[in-house]
Amino acid sequence: AYEKRFPTCPEIPVFLGSEILHESRSDDGAIHIIERSCKLNVDAPRLLKKARVEYVFFIQKNTVNWKERTLLIEAHNETFANRVVVLETCSYSVHPENEEWTCFEQSASLDIKSFFGFESTVEKIAMKQYTSNIKRGKEVIEHYLKELISQGITFIPRWTPPQVCGQKDERNLAVGHNADDVPLESGARGTTKEQTGSSCPPAEAVSPDADKLDADYIERYLGQLTPMQESCLIRLRQWLQETHKGKIPKDEHILRFLRARDFNIDKAREMLCQSLSWRKQYQVDYILQSWRPPALLDEYYTGGWHYQDKDGRPLYILRLGQMDTKGLVKALGEESLLRHVLSINEEGQKRCEENTNIFGRPITSWTCLVDLEGLNMRHLWRPGVKALLRIIEVVEDNYPETLGRLLIVRAPRVFPVLWTLVSPFINENTRQKFLIYSGNNYQGPGGLVDYVDKDIIPDFLGGDCMCTVPEGGLVPKSLYQTEEEPENSDHIRLWTETIYHSASVLKGAPHEIVVEILEGESVITWDFDILKGDVVFSLFHSKRAPETSHKEATLPSTSAAGDNMQLIDKTWVLGVDYSRMESPLVCREGESIQ
């Protein structure tokens, strides 16, 4: 029940999210340790504004001991760690005299070294947060216990010591745990093993320093890999562990980028680093929790999930011909449509993981069925096509190898015109997955029935299955936005309030940012990712303000690099006009610096 509050918990509003830094299990499976970075929104806006910090981060370590039947929770602050030390310890255990009772103990310590003269304020805030956490802790646990009971989970078998497994299949029943596994799921797997006559513990399919993947793990979660492909996956994952401090994607995700670049590690690494930075910058990891589609999309966006195809891939149906793309762009704008498309892709990955567990084999992509009945010249509206191309570019860069098959049915005569405009922007590997049917030749052998079970073919395509995908229609002009974003905008910004920017740094043309210090005890922070190449970071101080006429650097701006700014005048002399405040820091490719 406790694990269900991760990675986010609506029951705790100040808890904004978390990510796993490290996870390990003992050889016998009795001890499971997870260390997370937790993002909190503390009720101290003025204080945090003084320190130039929007959120605070805590490191939380949870240790489940199935043998001793205990849960130990240890937390300490990462933000302001050199000024304030907050330590909190909680434990759950079985009552020694009554096994039906759970004991709960909690303690905390606070050591304030210095905090810009706000030491007493910090102490009051900490005590307020601590008191609130104790009050809410029981309520949150009870909430998730009730949720488990509503799902029919009222009992988890006791942990038993491992036995020597005689059969390979039994030994590997629990192989392939990923970062999302929680103790409850381990217990559920234990039920399965008891039914098969084995009590083997969950095994770590992959260790950080492993030079070989478990064969059954590959077959169960990744699919067939050649020794070369397996080696590429291990090397790229090890590089990510070294540069991203353990905060790395799952093997399935890494593998998609390797496949998209034909297992060229350098190209795959560059593509993956760009994507990880993009996900961080625009908070894509939280889009399924944060994005709420406008009501207009529910009625006029003609797409939705519909069971799965014959290969077990999640099936998405898009009635593009019935969609008023021009009306949607004018009523919602490109950003809302892009967010919606990203949420569809995130949901698709989630459904792939679910189907992998359901069917017992790796499902890493989904199938899209596009009905073009009704496609006409209105769909070739230039700003709409431009928006479509931008969306395709974002999806191609960040969700490679997620589309298993694209079935296009009832393609009209105008389709070749649209295809000519769009196809050059689609990756060659992706284009090979397209199957296009004109007229009614999708019916019968060689058509949809080869890829989708007959009993789930939608009624509007001649099947017997009722499909809940909206029928669409024209968006009323009264819903159009009054002010449109200029058509010559080069970027889709997603979250316009993001504090991140992109820049290209070349020798002799640095990217410089001026920070005006208005208060003597201000705190300067920096946070950036190195996408490609190595960069030297320096911090200087000057009492002179840079001349605005010299700030523009003579570098071309690209969609990948962004804008470069050069502020220090070439006539300035180091040690005279400005001084160095920090030793130069060499930042390697792929590193994340805070």
TrEMBL record:
Domain of life: Eukaryota
Region (Disordered) residue spans: 176-207
CRAL-TRIO domain location: 293-469
GO cellular component, one term: cytoplasm
Alphabetized SUPFAM superfamilies for the sequence: CRAL/TRIO domain, CRAL/TRIO N-terminal domain, Supernatant protein factor (SPF), C-terminal domain
Ranges for domain PRELI/MSF1: 1-153
Protein name stated in the entry: SEC14-like 5
Organism: Pelecanus crispus (Dalmatian pelican)
